[in-house]
Amino acid sequence: MISKEKLEEFKNRLSKEKLQILSDIFGEEIAIKSFADQSEGDIADKASEFYESQLLASISGVQREIIDKINEALKRIEDGVYGKCKICGNAIEIERLEAIPYTDICSSCAKKASRR
Ligand SMILES: [Zn+2]
Fold first, then answer.
1. Where are the alpha helices (DSSP H) in the chain?
2. Cα–ligand 1 centroid distance for 100 (angstroms)
3. 83 C-alpha vs ligand 1 centroid, how far in Å?
4. What average pLDDT does this structure show over 50-74?
5. What is the distance in A from the centroid of ligand 1 to the CA of 8?
6. Ligand 1 mean position to 95 CA, how many Å?
7. DSSP β-bridge partners for residue 84
């Protein structure tokens, strides 16, 4: 089990990483705008979600893949299933999460996948 503090830490790291990628592509101002008001309830939430999806629609390739993975990871944190391997269902090693916070498979499944 990952502690609440640790989850919060991963959440912060994931958010920062996402902001960093968006800043690299669109500039800081726009990136921050897509994050703005997220704490101010449903309507603001939906507005920034909409804004973010518009931003996402204009990027592709590796950066898009990473952002998608980060978003999935953030959702898993919310759903309380973060850190669980989506292939075997075992807990993902904490060291692996520290290295790649948005990963959704454990290291042994990752090894098997790369061997294929
Ligand atoms: Zn696994």
1. 4-26, 28-35, 42-57, 61-79, 94-99, 107-115
2. 15
3. 10
4. 88
5. 23
6. 14
7. 91
Domains, the chain, in order of start with CATH, read: 4-115 (1.20.120.910)
- Rounded distance from Cα 88 to ligand 1 centre (Å): 4
Instruction: Report percent pLDDT > 70 for the chain.
Output: 87
Whether residue 72 has pLDDT greater than 60: yes
| Span from the CA of 110 to the centroid of ligand 1 (angstroms) | 7
Q: Is the pLDDT of residue 58 over 90?
A: no
The pLDDT value recorded for residue 57 is: 86
Q: What is the pTM of this model?
A: 0.81
State the burial class of residue 31 (Cβ atoms within 10 Å of its Cβ: 0-12, 13-18, 19+): buried
